[in-house]
Amino acid sequence: MRNIWIIARREFSSFFATPVAYVFIAIFLVLSGIFTFFIGNLFERGQADMLPFFNFHPWLYLFLVPAIAMRTWAEERKSGTIELLMTMPVSIGEAVLGKFLAAWAVLALALALTFPLWLTVTYLGAPDHGIIIAAYLGSWLMAGAFLAISMCMSALTKNQVVAFILAIVVCFLFVVSGSNIVLDAFQMWAGNAVIDTVASFSFLSHFESMAKGVLAMNDVGYFVIAIGVWLYASLIIIEQKKAD
Amino acid sequence: MISVQNLSKYFDQFKAVDDLTFDIGPGDIVGFLGPNGAGKSTTMKMLTGFLAPSSGNIEINGQNVAEHSKAIQQQIGYLPEGAPAYGDMTVYQFLHFIADIRKLRGKEKQARVAAVTDRLELHSVLNRPVENLSKGFKRRVGLAQAIIHDPAILILDEPTDGLDPNQKHQVRELIQGLSEDKTVIISTHILEEVAAVCNRVMIIAKGALQFDDTPGALQQRSRFYQSVSLTLSYAADISGLAELDGVADMEVDRKTGRVTLFPESGQPILPQVTEHIQLRRLPVEDLHVEQGRLDDVFREITTQQEVRG
């Protein structure tokens, strides 16, 4: 437990020792503002809720989370510090969790800094705060799933750019797996059960009700399991490929 | 106590380490020598539990490395090749991070960080990010990190690579200053270093152990061991030197005029030679006994393998 905390603390401060966290948070705030006001038409809708804000989160995370996660393991490999870390009395699981928690905390911070929007909506009307809190939690949970995928892709390679692109591709598949882009590929040969299963992996459909503030057990469970599975996958990949 | 049995490592078809068997006890300071690509680093990575062996067994203090890697890693200090460190951290943060991971707490941690900072003279760079340091300082930070928990076993992969002569001297003093019951393994291809700090030399080439003995024994392997070399201030009859008892051969360097007398079977020949010089009043202006040329022996040991293989 202590090791996880030590590693998470190091990773977290390393995000802020380099411009990574600042750039990430700034761009996240600017983009979420643009999406909310110009594309989501927050004012024109005339409703005191934050749905336009949350609806764009999957698309925002699609590019931004791989960007913050790409260095996680790729850089350790490139600089050789993975050898240092793996010969310390730290298990790979602790390292994986520590790194995940640190990056997830940065995402939490970025989300928390969107509070002026909440204040705005509160000032303009009387939103249901419970719904907004639930939607924030849901969004953070989904960000965790994006993060777990991206970190797993980072574990695959030494090259950060490759990690970034792989992560975007895999995340994109998960975002759109409920839509025809992905399902058409299965339509011809797979049975309905397969198509339904693939469709049920969709981040979009699981996030849809979360954005409205409904934290259903199956949606929460889906993202928690997705995080667990992808983190476990990175653990195995690092175990196998740490010295390559 | 490190005990290695029939250790081999393959990377796909390439055999990096080939059936190594050796024991290293407390107090041994082992110089691990070999040409680049001989398998030194791979062996060290297996000793520290970073790489899993393809076959064979490593036991450290009676525990198998594969099964008890975390317990064993706590007892080992390791400087990986190239002294990697987290570049965005300052030296102070980095040492504290390593101390935390090494389970040092409170006052003990403060004391150990201060001790290694003193020992490696890192005061002037404590608040600078590691990535902005010179190569020499980076290496010293790596060394500080390796000894911070006062490990019983110290494994250093090319600790003096990139250091200037003063810093090399410092590192050697550091290694010599470690207490006597510690086990140290140093990989290097600087031969003088081995003679200076080690009490045991292991040479590997193409992954296989070629030589395992003291540095003295390595020198004795040299043709030049105990040979006497002298220069004359002007030409004189030196044919008598080659006829002396115990002198096997004489070579004269045509360019420098330096005469080298090789002994039979490593026996000292200095008394006979000086007696002869005095008797014949040879105009000798410089004379000394050679200790053996390590690089010759090294080349001989590591390349004969190539010819055979």
Please tag this protein with its features.
heterodimer, A: 244 residues, mainly alpha, 82% helix, globular, B: 309 residues, alpha/beta, Rossmann fold, Alpha-Beta Plaits, 2 domains, 6-stranded mixed beta sheet, 4-stranded antiparallel beta sheet, 11 helices, 35% helix, elongated, ATP binding (chain B), transport (chain B), ABC_transporter_ATP-binding (chain B)
Description:
The complex is a heterodimer of chains A (244) and B (309). With 244 residues, chain A is mostly helical. Chain A contains 15 helices and no strands. The longest helix of chain B is centred in the C-terminal third of the chain and has 15 residues. In chain B, helix 3 packs across helix 4. With 309 residues, chain B is α/β, with parallel strands linked by helices. Chain B has 11 helices and 14 strands. The two termini of chain B are 32 Å apart. Chain B has 2 domains: 219 residues, Rossmann fold, CATH 3.40.50.300; 63 residues, Alpha-Beta Plaits.
